[in-house]
Amino acid sequence: MRAVLLDEKTKMLRIGETEEPDRSAGDVLVRVKATALNRADLLQRRGLYPPPPGASPILGLEMAGVVEEGSGPWKPGDRVMALLPGGGYAERVRIPAGMAMRIPDALSFEEAAAIPEVFLTAYLNLFRLGGLKSGQTALIHAGASGVGTAAIQLAREAGVRTIVTAGSQAKRDACLALGAGEAIDYKAGPFAPRVREATGGRGVDLILDFVGAPYWEQNLASLAIDGKLIIVGTMGGAKVPELDLGHLLARRLQIIGTALRTQPKERKEELTADFAAFALPRFASGKLKPIVDSVWDWNEVEAAHARMESNANIGKIVLRITDGSEE
Ligand SMILES: NC(=O)c1ccc[n+]([C@@H]2O[C@H](COP(=O)([O-])OP(=O)(O)OC[C@H]3O[C@@H](n4cnc5c(N)ncnc54)[C@H](OP(=O)(O)O)[C@@H]3O)[C@@H](O)[C@H]2O)c1
Asked: For position 247, what pLDDT does the model report?
């Protein structure tokens, strides 16, 4: 089959021939129609985020496509989407039956490919780890990112108020249109006083953070008593100079770090089933929307990566996997 291959010397991506997906990866064989970019792809490409043991070395943490070989409830011809530990930038993938989600009829493959990684990440962190409840407030950093746009919508559906940070007016407008209650320009000054002001001095119940070290002190200052800081990325740096543990005790704060990709298969299948029950009816009715920034032919993968590198995207950057016959 063909896949996007990484030239280890030049770090350039190009489409080339490779082996069919490993049978041990799962019983359901899927012809991939679309995949989507994630920040992790940029890191993996630079050698900074190796795939977990047993995962495909090919980039791509999600895909949407058509079942070619079924198993369990899945039959050839079914339209499915799934989270992957790797291998999405390819013509075919194998997945365990428990990882597949049926694509609602209303969604295209390009829209469906924009769902698994960011929506499952947001769902895991807001509800399972974060335990957010209706009436609470969450601060979502990088609100216009793939994960951010998913988190704003999931929070809205659960009755959770969101405050976001984002780096441009277009991004802040997009967040507000998705249901964010407040959008802060983090480039205009510290966000913590704005969060305090927006919550009547109380602070937020949960922070979903991708920025890390530069936000550390302001994040702690933005949390309410019993608040949770959930760290899922360190785009701005990972090392904090000092930590006064007294803050954690006095204000009963919790700090959680997590990664979706390395979770055991059983936990990912359980998360997928739980998320599908909550979200698929809402995608079918249009209450939840995959936020697609742009769609690129997979021949244009370099340009698609450059768009994410430049922080230009609002929502997901999608790659259409063509077999040449469409051209
Ligand atoms: N742990 C997990 O399980 C997991 C799973 C999925 C994703 N993630 C992480 O979640 C984060 C978002 O991923 P994504 O694919 O949704 O990203 P994305 O769509 O590429 O958006 C990232 C946005 O973050 C903002 N940003 C980048 N560097 C920044 C910095 N140094 N300080 C402040 N803001 C910065 C930029 O928006 P502005 O213009 O607003 O600055 C950028 O557009 C990444 O860190 C990714 O690794 C973690």
From this structure: 87
